[in-house]
Amino acid sequence: MNNITFVDTTLRDAHQSMWNGQMTTAMMLPIAPTVDKVGFEALDFMALISMDWCIRNLKENPWDRLKLMSKAMPNTPLIVGGVLRNFGNIPDSITEFWCKAIAKAGAGINRINDPCHDMPEIKKAIKWSKSAGLTSLVALIYSYSPVHTDEYYAEKAKQMALEGAERIFIKDVDGLLTPERTRTLIPAILKKIDGVPLELHGHCTTGLEPICYLEAIKLGVKTVHTAVSPLANGPSQPSIQNILMNLDHLGYSNDLDRDALKTMTEHFEYVAKREGLPTGTPVEYDLFQYEHQVPGGMMSNYKAELVKRGLIGRLNELLREIAQIRKELGYPIMVTPLSQYIGAQAILNQTVGERYKFVTDEVIKYALGHFGEQAAPVEKPIMDKILKMPRTKELENWEPPEKSIEDLRKEFGEDLSDEEFLLRVLASNQAALDEVLDAGPQKYDYPRGDKPVLSLIKELASSKHGASVQITKGDFSLEMR
Hints:
By secondary structure, this protein is an alpha/beta fold.
């Protein structure tokens, strides 16, 4: 009863939070067999939006990543998914077809995140998961506000369980949980889900998440989501090394291979040093986080955007504006894509001379209820202002465009493979996709971090600079010409 299992986030959310998603397939693949030996319950591996990111920023084919890694880790289920609702861009037919494609490519679990906890959308995603042979893992996305009460989350969890969710997890994307709130929230949810496993996935943005994990485990949570120490803490998840140390002290057991975990950790320490990437450190407590609630992964992107616009000096002002907008819009949860919509609106409100003089289409659609159930209504003065806008009238009866697979194949190419067809529909940059596909099969060579001397020898041997390499240690001598 005291055995705890772990979902590892190193290869997805952790590097997305710590390294802005810059981990390549080559960095993952050499260590994958070792990761498979650790004994993780599952591996947080890829988001729907990660597929487009792989193409645009890493020049990689995401299908290669999924197939190669699933083959290298046959014993560890890979979690793929994220925000599956289309928000007007992707027809349901594509999302359903995508679920079948990722299952065929090697995914085992479909992560379902709906920013509004909109049950009709969640119900569809659970149905698609089961039809594809995937386990459904549904998110309760945590937020701190007057309307996001224990009762709110308990009722949402109950509905998810009734709709057939096989696993439910609390997703504390903004790092807002406190130990005190954990002690009331966990029991409230557990009472309502009739034995469906409850997991905890949180970020260390305020520094409290490791304590919340321990409190949740004491209250009956059996699975927690962690990262290896080089990619833990900061805006990422708690360190598995820290959680294990404390669970050992509390008398909880686990089935992890500690030697394999050590080797995995050493590899990513090596990658961080080799690539000049940051490693995670605990953060100081910040009360302001509870007001603006900008996720750690978004914050780095937002700062980069402000630098481009010459607005980085106004960061705190914009964060206060984000907090105000969130209150006025009825406390939408600051998670992708709603957090990005609010961040963009804040820049508009603070740069055009009048708040809400211009409102993005996405915020208008949210205010009109097109994105699903709202936790609280938009404040009347703001809603009145939005309703008077000409663009609002154009969007009032907007509905997401729905096209069949057959119609989309005619549009993108009837002879495309299923995988290329999906990439064509999902890609935001067709030129970047052309470049990736035209490049053909890629090599994913990368040195093993737990064998640094061997890696050094290989690199020196392949170097075109220098006529010979000589390595000596004590009585040992090796020379390569």
